[in-house]
Amino acid sequence: MNSWLNDLPSARKAGESNVLEMHPDDARDLGLVNGDLAAVESSVGRIELDVLVSDRPQRGVVITEHGWGSNGSEAQGANRNVLTADTDIDELSATPAFSTTRVRVERVG
């Protein structure tokens, strides 16, 4: 992911950190509301993000922006790249599946 410019003020217009966007039905099923802390875990990694309930993702899909947490500081968001495995290949493009990774979401705490 191209995340080396995430420290520029112009790149931070959306906020001070990335969030986990989830469909309202999925959030309800998991007992999550806006601002709750959720763990997002794949077969290779785990990050924690604040929840943003949104109609933007379809049910069963979560969204988080890339470009955060790349410098190792959690104060600047969570690095979603830790969730991706370079061995998972996208069938259509035959490249690593960095944009589509199966994850499990659960409430923290």
Descriptive overview:
The protein has about 110 residues and is mainly beta. It has one domain: Barwin-like endoglucanases, CATH 2.40.40. It is about 5% helix and about 20% strand. A five-stranded mixed β-sheet has the order 4-1-3-2-5. The radius of gyration is 14 Å and the shape is globular. It starts with 19 loop residues before the first strand and ends with a strand. The model has no long low-confidence stretch (mean pLDDT about 85).
- Report the helical percentage: under 10%
Count up the helices. 1
Strand content: 15-25%
Q: Could you describe the largest sheet, including whether it forms a barrel?
A: 5 strands, mixed
Task: Please compute the radius of gyration using only Cα atoms.
Answer: 14 Å
Strand order of the largest sheet: 4-1-3-2-5
Number of domains: 1
At CATH level 2, the architecture is Beta Barrel
Point out poorly predicted stretches: none
